[in-house]
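Colleagues,

For the teaching module next term, I've prepared a clean inverse folding example: a structure given as tokens, and then the sequence designed for it. I'd like students to try predicting residues themselves before seeing the answer, so please don't circulate the second half yet.
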């Protein structure tokens, strides 16, 4: 049973449109706060889109996601899980980037997440673009390579952009394999689709043993079958989950930089996360929500709903 200090503010005590917005109305506990020692899972904002190559905006994601997260209640309607009773959860605030320097931002992020790991806290991050995942993996995968379950319409496995630029939101998992942060044979990418520059990313995946499940196979086999394979690939070891909102069809998640049509519905987007139940999840992220392309807030609301589902599978296992 979680400490009462770490319970979210109930909408029965203070209306959900009132108050200072933190992730899911949890207490704000920065890394230098004494209460940090009691935190099990830390929700972290990563307001950085320095790796974005097309339409920008995810640097504004954490603020909009915090705002929309006040819509989240304490109990999962599908599974009945009450995550805030199972683990001490807190909003750790934002990890600060240097918006004018990509490499310095990567260093700042890795240093921050190394402190989170050192404190024994599992991070649940709201991005930010997908390059944010690399410095997180540099901290969490420093000792041994992690398994990775990656939802996306893109592999983000390209070698470089613009003739040699190594750090973009299209390259983080190529770097993560090269640096030994993830085990390619325990990595699965789900939902891949859309037009492509070429097959360089897919060729690399095949060469190193990453399992790529394209959207055609995903729909042909169905969620339960695909996710059973994903759990088998990840295995019982420490696993990171990375969820790009552009995995979801742009009819449901238009507020993102590189949307691809022909994707899962919002219902299917939630279902795949519930199917992660039983994995040993050491951290997770939800990236690429871009508020400038999301004037209705619908993408951010789906984003925080996915963060809540991720939180539920991080706190409970029924398998
Ligand atoms: Mn991505
Ligand atoms: Mn993507």
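(Answer key — instructors only)
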């Amino acid at each position: 049973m979680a400490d009462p200090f770490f319970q979210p503010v109930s909408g029965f005590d203070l209306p959900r449109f009132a108050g200072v917005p933190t992730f899911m109305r949890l207490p704000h506990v920065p890394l230098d706060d004494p209460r940090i020692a009691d935190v099990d899972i830390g929700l972290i904002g990563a307001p950085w889109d320095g790796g974005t190559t097309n339409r920008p905006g995810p640097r504004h994601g954490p603020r909009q996601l915090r705002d929309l997260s006040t819509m989240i209640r304490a109990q999962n309607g599908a599974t009945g899980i009450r995550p805030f009773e199972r683990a001490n959860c807190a909003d750790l605030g934002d990890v600060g980037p240097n918006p004018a320097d990509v490499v310095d931002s990567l260093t700042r992020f890795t240093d921050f997440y190394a402190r989170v790991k050192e404190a024994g806290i599992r991070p649940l991050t709201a991005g930010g673009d997908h390059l944010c995942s690399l410095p997180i993996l540099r901290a969490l995968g420093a000792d041994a390579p992690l398994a990775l379950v990656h939802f996306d319409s893109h592999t983000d496995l390209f070698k470089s952009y613009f003739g040699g630029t190594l750090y973009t939101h299209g390259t983080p998992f190529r770097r993560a394999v090269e640096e030994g942060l993830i085990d390619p044979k325990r990595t699965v990418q789900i939902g891949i689709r859309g037009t492509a520059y070429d097959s360089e990313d897919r060729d690399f995946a095949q060469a190193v043993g990453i399992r790529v499940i394209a959207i055609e196979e995903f729909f042909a086999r169905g969620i339960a079958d695909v996710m059973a394979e994903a759990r088998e690939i990840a295995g019982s070891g420490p696993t990171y989950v990375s969820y790009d909102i552009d995995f979801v069809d742009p009819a449901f998640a238009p507020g993102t930089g590189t949307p691809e049509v022909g994707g899962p519905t919002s219902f299917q987007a939630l279902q795949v996360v519930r199917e992660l139940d039983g994995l040993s999840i050491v951290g997770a992220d939800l990236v690429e929500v871009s508020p400038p392309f999301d004037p209705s807030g619908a993408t951010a609301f789906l984003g925080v709903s996915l963060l809540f589902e991720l939180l539920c599978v991080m706190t409970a296992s029924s398998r």
